[in-house]
Protein 1
Amino acid sequence: MYRIGFIVVLILAIALGLLIGTLNHEVVVVDLLWTQLHWPLGLLLLAALATGILIGLMLLWMFTVLPLRMRLRKARRAQTGKSGITDNSNA
């Protein structure tokens, strides 16, 4: 079921990317301090969207997932210390 959902989302993302790319094919100039980029508007929009998604996922991981993993590690250490059980899975 997961694989079917992934394939459907992938097909929709490709279709949306093609639609944005074909409807916004005009070349625009992005003037950075050290260079100028001459990119199609659709590519620029998709690059900005992808960059925003990646930055958002990194912030989510840094401020949600990482602290929860640290709390879980601390709780497991406390539980192991209380019960006297040692983890010999590395041996």
Protein 2
Amino acid sequence: MRKLAITTTAVAAVALLALSGCSSRGGDDTSGDGASKGFDKGSLIGVALPDKTSENWVLAGDLFKSAIEEAGFKADVQYAGQSTPVPDQQAQISSMTTKGAKVIIIGAKDGGQLGTQVKDAQEAGAKVIAYDRILTDTKNIDYYVAFDNFKVGQLQGQALLDGLKAKFPDKKTYNIELFSGDPGDANAPVFFKGAMDVLEPKIKDGTLKVVSGQTDIKQTATKDWLAQNAQNRMDTILQGSYGSTELDGVLSPNDTLARAILTSVKSAGKPAIVVTGQDSEAASIPLIMSGEQYMTIYKDTRKLVKQAIDMATELSKGDKATTTTTTDNGAVKVPTFYLDPIVVTKDNAAEVYKDDDKLAPLTK
């Protein structure tokens, strides 16, 4: 396990604010007056997390429990099951509301299917904080805390271009394929749009060619973020479009899918390609250090959890939570705190992960 690095010291607070740029108190508030009379130490804070589809979600649960208790509150941290994640989350959020949770932090499996539950939570007096994934098409959300996911996509798109130029210095054009995440995850289209903000001009000018022709997000989606779904699609694309054609690179939205794509390419007997990733999963760090996977994105879960609990602590004092911007969720502009993601390649991995007890040794 990574060593818990969630503290309440002024130094840590200043460092986190510096990471995220200039921040402000409050911002637009979707629940009326924003601040309230606060609530006592020892009050319940609920955390509803999706099924454990990545290392970061697994890590988040333990971090939340420790951080909530360290801040002086009671913790109710629950994961959704893999087979029925949306109904599970709906029931868990309702249960937290019934138990009198003062703040409910939600990492949604599907941010568009929790409207009834968050409405009930707010009406019962709870503050609702969306964590990592925005809750969509509902006015019943107080805050959102996440890494800047559009920027994540932009960084992935630029990294794909950089990696192609570095690996194939004699080429002027490159054959690529595009993958995106689960359609039910509100972050998936944001990642994809950010990447296409960088890649689409290069597709239009002919620098990049998507040989399969699959450029629409509905075509590129990977249901449930499952590695097997990505590998199956990559197998199909290679068989249908790359019999005698070279594949140079693939936009992958995260590390799990990147590894599946690499497995498919190897199984097809194709030469090494440039592939992107995200989440800094332990299984991908050796691949990055060996050059098999070109890059990943580091989004330090410890800092994201810490910021969510800092916001809850501010609310307990009757203050508005600190925010940096707003995010349009389709119904309202939600006061948001964005943290900055970091691109990681083999050139900077040791420096980026130096304070991460789990990942630092993998860069040696």
